[in-house]
Design goal:
This protein is of the alpha+beta class. It contains 23 helices and 26 strands. The strands form 7 sheets. A 7-stranded mixed sheet has the order 22-19-18-15-14-13-24, sandwiched between helices. A hairpin with a 5-residue loop joins strand 13 and strand 14. Helix 1 crosses helix 7, helix 2 packs across helix 17 and helix 7 packs antiparallel against helix 8.
Amino acid sequence: MNRFVLQMLLLLLGWGLGFPLFSAEPATTPAAAAPASPATHDSATNVFHPVKPATDDGRIAWTTAAMLELHQYLTQPFDAALSAKFFDRYLETYDPQHLHFLRSDLAEFDHYRTNLHHLILGPNTANLHRPGTDFQPDTAPADEIFNRFMERLEQRVAYVNDLLQREKFTFDADERIVINRKDLPYPRDLTEAKRLWRERIRAEYLQEKLGHDDAAKKAATTAAKKDATAKNGAKAAEKKLDAKPKTPDQEIVETLTRRYQRNLRTFGELDDEDVLQIFLNALAHVYDPHSDYMNKAQKDQFAIAMNLSLFGIGAELRSEDGYCTINRLMPGPAAESKRINERDRIIAVTQTNGPPVDLVDMRLDKAVQLIRGPKGTPVTLTILPAGAEASARFDITLIRREIKIEDQEAKAKVVEIPDSHGQSVRLGVIDLPSFYAPFDTANSRQKAEPKYTSVDVSRLLQKMKQEKVSGVILDLRHNGGGSLEEAIRLTGLFIKTGPVVQVKNHDGVVEEEEDRDPSVIYGGPLIVLTSRLSASASEIVAGALQDYGRALIVGDTSTHGKGTVQTVVPVNSIYTQLTRNPPMSSDPGDIKVTIKKFYRPSGATTQKIGVIPDIILPSILGESKEIGESTLDNPLEADTIPGVKFDHLNLVSPYLPELKKRCYVRLASDPEYTYIREDIEQYKKLQADKTISLNEKQRLKQKEQDDLRAKSRDKERLARKPLPGVVHELTLKQVDLPGLPPPAPKTNTVAKASSVKVPAEVDELADGALDEEKPTAVDAALNEAEHVLLDYLYLMPKDGILTAGPTSTTVR
């Protein structure tokens, strides 16, 4: 792991990278027309306008609180004790590093600490008093606390801007500061807060300074290459020579000023609807980490993720310097127009018979809501081409339609690799990012074409059987879950009938969820590849296949550990049911609430524990103390229940000792795993040290050591022989075509690539780095899983684990 990246990430914790909505400006894919909420931050004057409660806020809050109290798994009363946890959680949502709120702020708001339940549910919470003329639920604390946070944030940004303009930063003392202040007290007063803010900006300044020289060289190289190939390259070069170059300090000051202003604007653009969602999510997360309140915009995003489709123009957007910018075109109306290109900016949007709405400086998610809309409806966009003057703008009308999000659907590859005897063997790898299925809580008339995980994976498996693969790897490393029903159906593709998961509700009633389809789509050798990011439905599949002895589980020390089941219910439906009042006129969103816990067929739980692989591969993720259910606030506890009857196939344990032995011998000599073990040790040291040095010489010496180590690794990787064999990438569009697609390039060829995803703030420092020749990132875990599968094939009976054929269920 790059030490620079890790330290910058730790520094950015001060801005709250875990912020649930808008800590960064995310790229997203547009599609629904809805009026934008009024902004709370005037970007032209940089003035924040305090947020006030909207008409329905109290009723939405009352309904959410009632739903949690009545139907969340613990059926925990919303009382004074829970109110205090709610209060603290809400403060930390905005200020997780305890840098902004003063103790005087906390004292001022302290009367809310044990009173929020009365304000939201009413004085007679035991009977869930219905909102009426004698009681109106009150969400004023949400806005008051947010407004105070914005006041402190504005003070911080003003103070930092002043420091950056007048102070000369030096780093020659033996000074260290605490990076993660989550468990430390809030600042006593504004003087102490300014001391903390000064420490933080000094740390950020030094981080920028250490990265500046390399970044400047890389950026200069990139600019020179661009100028050399541009039509006006000579003129551009002359212009650069005439321009007065900025000093490194000036560039650092500009970078940090821009970063702080961007964060101020991001928070300042939150409106009352956003603040209410953050407030009610803080309440839901006091019950458990996976219950949520979703306003309409978030509900739409949830539906898109489940359906893998939306209704829009087919463009992925990002916010760039206040502009809604095209990041990537997907198959759809925008690309088909031949007039819209990547990096073009959408500066206005016009609905049918409506006036143009200016998108410049509008928050990205609000702009996206205007661009999306019902299938078959027109939307007119005003486009400013990339790099063009304002006079080059033009209008274009597109007809919205369903856009498939294909990069999140199941995909596969067929790997042709030599075994230990030099014989070519075909292995199949299925990459499954999520468990998707049709989702529509609003019962809308425009419905996406249904997409089912089990159907897509079944098609890929059938194709692999046609191509004579000898074994399959199901890659669930980045699968955070999804549809419970699809997890059950997917498991059924590999086993005959039997229980897949047990589900227990709050009353202790347990139900078996089973596969009733006797067909086995794939009966050959199977590995399930997991990581600490494999969660929920992924753990159901991995746990069931491990219990049955059907698949070999390979991966991190454990999976995520989410063993709970959620349901999504419209707020209006609960509100009308509990109050017998008419529904709210506007869509108040949905409530996602944890209602059950699931268990493996053996009765074991995955909650907080996860699925422990049969073969553990070293990784930084696996060693992380910051990822997993047990690291979240208020997770439900782990327990077990009696197991149920199922057929234990015993297809793994006879071979497991020898498979482990061969694997660990390989890992001991594999250079990639030598690097991983070194990174794990470095990671542990950085995590153990809660401070960071502000001595430039010490940090520079460490950076030079890190750079030398990185260059040495790159040199070794580039000198390696190409991996044997070929890889055929396979999408769902290709499964019905004869044969396989042409092989993909070798995995150790030189590429302009970076294997580490970092926030935009960090990425700014690496401009130009993509032009360096580096080896592509090595997927060490997948490479080793392929070798384990080859060993599995060698050790197993030659006629296969299960008899061949799409519907065979005979166990050998």
